[in-house]
Input
Amino acid sequence: MQTIDKVLIIPDGHRRYARENRTTYSEAYCRGGRRAAHLLREAIQGRLFHSVTLYLVATKNFDERTSANMRTIFEGVSLLFNILLENPIAGARYRTRGDLSRLPDGVLAPLRALTSEDKPSAAPTVEFLLDYSGIREAQSAMAAESDDYFRVRPYDIVIRTGKIMRLSDSPIWECSRADMFLIDKYFPDVEAADLRHIRDEYVDDKANRHTLALLDQSEETP
Output
């Protein structure tokens, strides 16, 4: 089965998961961290996706959430990074994007350990968005009059969980041509089968579009 090249996952719904399941925010985000490690492993080692970007912490989270809530978010993120350190995804390289200056040491230490290992650029890639704003990134690129912003390959697929479809200040250019998929679950409940279903649906739809394009061309031929 075909491997999709570049995918963004927006893992939403942790707090609603906690409220509906009568558990703490801390447990919801830690469950989400364990789930993220599992899904990334399945996506890369199962060859569903070659490159996965995981949008972990938005810049607006720092502005809108309480310090107590941010601590619970960082608990889950730190757990994710430590799981990946203890049990690496074979052959994968790790990258990060965003402003790391506001991240606590409990997140920074495992993140730096993950991203310090040098891997070939062609290796399967896991990218983490941390204290990231797509609007801010685009504004910086425009101010610098940099064409590099538009040379980055767009995502093939954007996947959002949490039962509500929105981009949440994601990378603007990279999302511009992506197929959008909503998983009607909170992130701590997402399974690898959900990702496989999206991959299969995307591949089938792309094949159908290609067939229709060929039919259109044949009808135009005199």
In short: The beta strands are 4-10, 49-58, 93-97, 125-132, 157-160, 179-182. The mean pLDDT is 92. Residues 4-220 form a domain with the Undecaprenyl pyrophosphate synthetase fold (CATH 3.40.1180.10). The longest strand covers residues 49-58.
